[in-house]
Amino acid sequence: MSSSNYLKDLDYSVVQQCMHCGLCLPTCPTYDATKLERNSPRGRIALMRAVADDRLDVTKAFGDEMYFCLGCLACQTACPAGVNYAELFEHARAEIEEKKVLANPKRNTIRRFTLKWLFMDLRRLELAGKGLRLYQQTGLQSLVRNSGVMKAFPKRLQELEAMTPAVCDKFSSELIAPVTSAAGERKYRVAMLTGCAQDLTFSDVNRDTVEVLAQNGCEVITPAAQSCCGSLHAHNGEWTLAQQLARRNIDQFPPEQFDAIITNAGGCGSHLKHYASLLKSDPAYAKRAELWDAKVKDIHEWLVFIKVRSPKCEGRNQTVTYHESCHLTHGQKVVAQPRKLLKGIPGLKLVELPEANWCCGSAGIYNLTQPEMAGQLLERKIAHIKSTGATTVATGNPGCLLQLINGAAKAGLKLRVVHPITLLAEAYRAENSQ
Ligand code: SF4
Ligand code: SF4
User: Fold this and answer.
1) Residue 78 Cα: closest atom of ligand 1
2) Which atom of ligand 2 lies at the shortest distance from residue 85's CA?
3) Rounded to whole angstroms, what are the CA distances from 284 to 61, 247, 250, 280, 289?
4) What's the rounded mean pLDDT across residues 395-424?
5) What would the pLDDT profile of 122-175 be if each residue is shown by its tens digit?
6) Spacing, Cα 99 to ligand 1 middle (Å)
7) Residue 110 CB: number of other CB atoms within 10 A?
8) Which residues, in sequence order, are CB contacts of 317 under 8 Å at separation 6+?
9) With contact defined as beta carbons under 8 Å apart, do 348 and 342 qualify?
């Protein structure tokens, strides 16, 4: 791909697919908030096509518009013409970064530190996580918060500090053996991707996933050293780095050796299933990337496919509602499977959440870059959760888990926020302790 014309070089059948019907408009959270055409999928696609056709320059206004988009892909589900919004959106952002229309010293420094350094080697992220954990567990964080010293800092920094996630006591490599045997007969051999943010904040969900897989006849291979999937990079215009990470993952988890490559993070899975389009111009990896895409499975999808075993415990009575991660639902079309798993847990009553597939505002790092819009979406989501009367909300993506934990705390709502697989793992444990 030419380094400077991402949209122009994109297959024109993708660029011209939109027939302007407007059926996507009611499903778009940013259009819903502003009612402005340019904030809608149809409006954004028209802008992208104008750039591809050389009728519009890539400007700061274009950049701002593309970063106001959540990338939630609700429009892709609604579209009868099969518009590939994900591909358009990623190419638009890559072009914005290539043309540097949003560049400024602060933004450049943050991107250099996070996307180009921290997330390119997860040992660095783990080290940062250990530092943060020390800050939290020595009581320094509480001291800082209670002392009121944060009031001296800009409001945005205060908000960011309040959103800092709690780092786990142990990371995945300390909780999960490199090889976990299947409980009983081995039917499958699978690889487990432990993720980046997921590993820092929800390594227990990774452990639960491995336990559930083992309970269902899978031998699970979980190497201690892993790489980021690159979704953060692809969604934020760092196309070349995303390709680099995709190659690294394919080398580390040769798809020929596994029945499935498992992910439990909706956002990562949506990206992981598209390595073939990322590497299509790379003769050394194109074919393997196709096989890789076919082997990547979301955990809910895989368990239903292999006919998950229902836990045989008595179960504890709990009312649970389910929030759909955008990229699990719209990106991967994994909609029925998490509900099926939840309904199979003894004692669990599943109540449907109004607007379950409406974005919660997390959207990767959107809650950090667009706090106002993200805050509105979170309030709307929490109000809906409240209306169900559920005491637990389940969701299959670490970004959504963190966003809902923060939303519940802000609203003073006593709510358990949990991954569906954790509820399943708890039921198997209850069965085994009977
Ligand atoms: S990805 Fe989401 S926010 Fe962006 S245009 Fe589509 S529906 Fe709207
Ligand atoms: S639904 Fe699809 S074809 Fe219709 S306006 Fe939206 S993106 Fe275009």
Assistant:
1) 7
2) 7
3) 38, 10, 11, 10, 10
4) 96
5) 999 999 999 989 988 888 888 887 787 777 777 777 777 777 888 999 999 999
6) 23
7) 12
8) 347, 349
9) yes
Least confident span in 367-371, 376-380, 392-396: 367-371
Ligand closest to Cα of 14 equals 2
Question: Token match 């003894």: residue?
Answer: 346
What is the best residue among 25, 72, 76, 83 to mutate for testing ligand 1's pocket, by most ligand atoms within 8 Å of CB?
72
H or E element in which residue 72 lies: none
pLDDT at 139: 84
What pTM did the predictor assign? 0.93
Distance separating alpha carbons of residues 73 and 69, to the nearest angstrom: 10
Phi and psi angles of residue 221, each rounded to the nearest 5 degrees, phi first: -100, 120
**41 CA → ligand 2 middle, Å:** 7
Residues 8-53 pLDDT 10s = 889 888 889 999 999 999 999 999 999 999 999 999 999 999 999 9
Residue of 31, 38, 42 to mutate, ligand 2, most atoms within 8 A of C-beta: 42
Distance of alpha carbon 243 from alpha carbon 6, whole angstroms: 14
With CA atoms as reference, report the closest residue to 391 among 415, 374, 363, 407.
415
